[in-house]
Design brief:
Blueprint: H1 3-18, H2 23-38, H3 43-50, H4 54-66, H5 73-82
Helix pairs in contact: 1-5, 2-4, 3-4
Length: about 90
């Protein structure tokens, strides 16, 4: 990844942590949504099961729909950070 991309990623993580979200929580939410997405669950079902804001789940879901099937966790987090989605988690 280029330095600019890494900087965007780190800045997004810092903003999330400033708002009380730990890196692990960001990764955990992404991975939980990803597993449920692969099982064919809807955004409403996922938001209800994870007790998370539907708006955030919808945005993560959209990223997953448009991403390559073999995208890594880091690549997906980079996309979420670049779209400022993780800032909406709190």
């Amino acid at each position: 990844m280029c330095n600019l991309g890494y900087g965007v990623y780190e800045r997004g993580m810092e903003r999330g942590m400033e708002r009380g979200i730990e890196k692990g929580e960001m990764r955990t939410l992404l991975n939980q949504v990803r597993k449920k997405y692969r099982k064919g669950k809807s955004c409403d079902e996922i938001a209800d099961e994870l007790e998370t804001d539907l708006f955030v789940i919808e945005q993560i879901y959209e990223v997953l729909e448009n991403a390559e099937p073999d995208s890594t966790e880091k690549e997906l987090l980079d996309i979420l950070v670049s779209k400022n989605i993780l800032q909406n988690m709190v």
